[in-house]
Amino acid sequence: MKQKGTIVMAVSGKGGVGKSCLTVTVGRELARLGQRTLLVEMELGLGVLDVMLGLERGVCCLADLLDSRCDAKDCVMAVPGEPGLWALLSVNEKDFVYDPAVFAEKMDELAGSFDWILIETPPGYGSWFAAACQAADEAVIVATPDLPCLRQGREVSDLLEDWPSVRQRLIVNRLDSKRFCAWRPIANLDVAIDQVGVPLLGVVPEDGRLSYWINAGKSLPQDSGARKACQRIARRLLGQAVELGI
Fold first, then answer.
1. Taking a C-beta distance cutoff of 8 angstroms, is the pair 117, 38 a contact?
2. What is the pLDDT of residues 203-240, one digit of tens each?
3. What integer pLDDT is reported at residue 56 of this predicted model?
4. Burial label, 242 (beta-carbon count in 10 A; 0-12, 13-18, 19+)
5. What mean pLDDT comes out for the span 139-150?
6. Which band of pLDDT confidence, cut at 50, 70 and 90, is reported for residue 43?
7. Which of 154, 207, 224, 239 is deepest in the core (most CB within 10 A)?
8. Do residues 12 and 153 make contact, with C-beta atoms less than 8 angstroms apart?
């Protein structure tokens, strides 16, 4: 009997940290490592994963699955040109309210068909937060290397303590090494880890091409530092002993 896949929620205390681009890129790398991977978008209203993945929005979306209006096979979409990668796009209604029990049940059912489910949550703490927490095995807190964002990351971590079964890890995203060393928004990355209070999963460098390529529905080029960092994150998620590569 196939073991159920791992459900990971990507979460942040604020917007603009690059969580969507990161989720898509890590998802692609997991799929390229032979892992059947599903990306789930919890945004209220039209999201962005369809644009980032080169998908046409279908008739069915996440809300239709949760309300049992459509079966999973009608809601889950294969990503063109990316074997092993699928997506479940955001709800269309901005006033949709997530039922944590229903969401967790549906994700658990889907986990029987995938190795990994990456849930991309909106920033903040709406109904989606409790729903994602109830469904997830792991939470990846995404933060940029500045104190305001890291403090919000700690707030997210504190809220996650209400779900002790959810393993927490940190990704420091959009690290510009030259500016970081020159301006020192924080003394070093150890401060980031201490501020949020959870283990470090990965560090992703700033890459000016990332937003352009991803928002054009394309994969990052092989020489991209951000892509290489996401490859390492994917391998670390799989339990492989891979250095951070900072």
1. yes
2. 998 887 777 777 777 777 888 888 999 999 999 999 99
3. 86
4. middle
5. 91
6. very high
7. 207
8. yes
Q: What is the pLDDT of residue 246?
A: 63
Residues 6+ apart with CB under 8 A from 170: 140, 141, 143, 153, 192, 193, 196, 198, 199, 200, 201
Domains of the chain, residue spans: 6-237
List 107's β-bridge partners, or say none. none
Query: What is the CATH number that goes with domain 6-237?
Result: 3.40.50.300
State how far the Cα of 237 lies from the Cα of 156, in Å rounded to an integer: 20
Burial 214-231 (b: 16+ CB within 10 A, else e): beebebbeeebbbbbbbb
What is the reported pLDDT for 216?
A: 74
Give the separation between CA 168 and CA 160, rounded to whole angstroms.
8
Residue 73: which of 54, 92, 86, 57 has the closest Cα? 86
Which segments within 131-178 are labelled E, that is strand? 138-143, 167-175
C-alpha 243/C-alpha 232 separation (Å) is 8
Which is nearest to 31 in space by CA: 237, 206, 170?
237
